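Can't attach files on this board, so I'm pasting raw text. These are the components:
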Amino acid sequence: MTDNNYNEIIELLCDRLSSLTDSEVSITAETNLISELSIDSVKLLNLIMEIEDAFDISIPINALADVQTVHELASLISKIKSAS
Amino acid sequence: MNLLEKLDAAAAARKALLPEGVGAFGIPIEEVYSATEARIGERRVLLLGTNNYLGLTFAPECIQAAHKALDDEGTGTTGSRMANGSYYGHRALEREFADFYGCGSGIVFTTGYQANLGTISGLVGRGDTVLIDGDSHASIFDGCILSGAEIIRFKHNDMADMEKRLRRLGDRAETTLIIVEGIYSMLGDQAPLADIVELKNKYRCTLLLDEAHSLGVLGETGQGLVEKTGLQKEVDFITGTFSKSLCSIGGFCVSNHPQLDQLRYVSHPYIFTASPSPATIASTRAALQLLREGGHLRKQLWKNCTQLYNRLAEIGYQLGPEPGPVIAAILDSPKQALQIWQRLLEKNIYVNLILPPAAPDGKSLVRCSVNAAHTTEQMTYVGDSFAKLYHEILQS
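---
Top answer:
Structure tokens for the assembled complex are below.
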């Protein structure tokens, strides 16, 4: 994974997540998507679809089971993008 | 949070959606009078929340066949087919399903859920990919999870999104199983099968079609969407359930691929479960015969579907995109859906209440399931009741 690639993904995720949540939490790489941002599953899946299009990748649903933080989601996206 | 506290949290979430005393999920049905009427509490209700599409639950042919099987073969098989053997009825029903679809072979499963679980987990595994519709039934999703394959979903019935995802798969498309449904259970819409087949052939994938809700409903002889579209030779595997139009319990898979038979040796949901009881198999065989000859039942079913769908649309309800035996009114909030569901029950009409996250896109649904045994008068009464509630609840 290149730093640029990862940083670009983190930046996009933080930007999109802040528009989806009513939470006052400042979003960083370590922010927990569910417990801190209270994003419901429908919003999260819509976000995933948007990200998939932005990076022209498909994220397997089963890979998302291990994702809790913004960093973990960014790492997964970066890994899939590198392999594609 | 320990294991039991997790269940407490789930119970609290359920109670937040449904006030105390409202038993919308798993409602107690005290007596069943016919294919269209039952007693809930002290109410004699009109059943509009079952999947009894051809209205065959009390068909004398099915009841007599089940009685005879009980007398001749007993109440149960007491084990799996792998260990305890396959009864004549199991093998006959498999031949009859294969014959019905013009396929080389068929397998019977103990439930419809297991038909998807067993077929999918037998066909794909680690290193393979499944491409599923975003509105797929839980049995499809769970089969995919059990298989260990990578699960990619495409937007519901969106062919541009589906092709985009096939393109992204590159060489892996050839080891990809596409799974779609004849009629989707939430909004009652049909898959665009011709377009799906075109993409399946272009990317050299394998295609599984679940006809759970479309068996008995679509096509001249009731095969489902595959018959309506004339694409029998293009679909690799067809699954379905006995618990809807066939009015019993169980499931099947048919295919022209001779490898289907190998599922009997690799599919845990087939191997490690008791086989269907003789009475279940006997009533299903009788119902399949009635289904094949049931053009008049399909005609009545579609008359009822069209009547209710058009009436609800005329009133102003937001509905799924096309008429069918599943007609869902889409509401803005769980509160509205719950109010309509409760008021319908007060008017002696039982329908299904579907709240997030069970419904697609966070929607709330009041879902009606129409059947061939409903009368025009019953459909009119249901339409009139929905009309009153539209004005009382949605326009107040």
